[in-house]
Amino acid sequence: MTIDLHNHTPLCNHAEGSPEEYVEAAVAKGIEIFGFADHAPMEFDPKYRMGFEEMKKYETSVRELAEHYRGTIEIRLGYEVDYLPGQMDERVLDADVDYLIGSVHFIDEWGFDNPEFIGRYEGADLETIWREYFDAVEAMARSGLFDIAGHLDLIKVFNYRPEGDIRPLAEGALDALARNDMTLELNAAGWRKPVAEAYPSLDLLRMAHDRQIPITFASDAHSPAQVGYRMEALHALAHEAGYDEAADFRNRERRLLKF
């Protein structure tokens, strides 16, 4: 079973291609369960996400595609929600969707994965930044609001890493994912970034497996050409860590399928 639950649409203002083109690309790649999880609206940082007034358009278009392609590919509806206290909206958290991905893209209000703000890394205490990031991921997991944890170690995106073993920095976050029965995505987008490796690293993925945290898969596509990107390599990474099942979601209910 090939599952790909984290993909975007042009409504986020930094993706290209129509939703139908994404689905056609997924069909061509042999993906059997394909999910849209575009950036959910919030008042903060609005230029990188849909507006609240566009939620209905987004949800309707995905449901119409699911009906149109019934029997060819299964399509799921979700949102990628920024975990940012004070900015998460009930209209998103209570939406009638298959799943919510909780992601950390901000430390306080610093968009650490945005190339516009990369200069803040220079001269910074990288261990402190990484600790603050994983503290936010832990808080996201403890909130109980989300089904899937997005790109667990996104903080490595530009390859600014602290010295030494980073595994102790992530332990609290992984423990919280396990306690709150969240699913962890393996996300191929890191291979398209300066860090040039998937999220999460094999070391962290093994820690997740030790904690019996379920996984799923994500292209994190922002164009049809990125759909299914290095999916075989993601599967190989998962197998290396000990996994042979991946999660699918319908109506916020998880099922595990062999891959």
Identify low-pLDDT runs: none
* Approximate shape: globular
Helix and strand composition category: alpha/beta
Q: How are strands sequenced across the largest beta sheet? A: 1-2-3-4-5-6-7
Give the strand content: 15-25%
Query: Describe the biggest sheet?
Result: 7 strands, parallel
Order of SSEs = EHEHEHEHEHEHEHEE
Quaternary state, please? single chain
Radius of gyration: 17 Å
- The number of distinct helices, counting runs of at least 4 residues, comes to 7
- Tally of strands: 9
Summary of the model, kept short:
Helix content is 31%, strand content 18%. It has helices at 19-28, 55-68, 90-93, 126-143, 167-179, 202-210, 231-241; strands spanning 3-4, 33-39, 74-82, 99-103, 148-149, 183-187, 215-218, 245-250, 253-258. Helix 4 (126-143) packs parallel to helix 5 (167-179) and helix 5 (167-179) packs parallel to helix 6 (202-210).
Question: Could you outline the blueprint of secondary structure elements for this entry?
Answer:
Blueprint: E1 3-4, H1 19-28, E2 33-39, H2 55-68, E3 74-82, H3 90-93, E4 99-103, H4 126-143, E5 148-149, H5 167-179, E6 183-187, H6 202-210, E7 215-218, H7 231-241, E8 245-250, E9 253-258
Parallel strand pairs: 1-2, 2-3, 3-4, 4-5, 5-6, 6-7
Antiparallel strand pairs: 8-9
Helix pairs in contact: 4-5, 5-6, 6-7
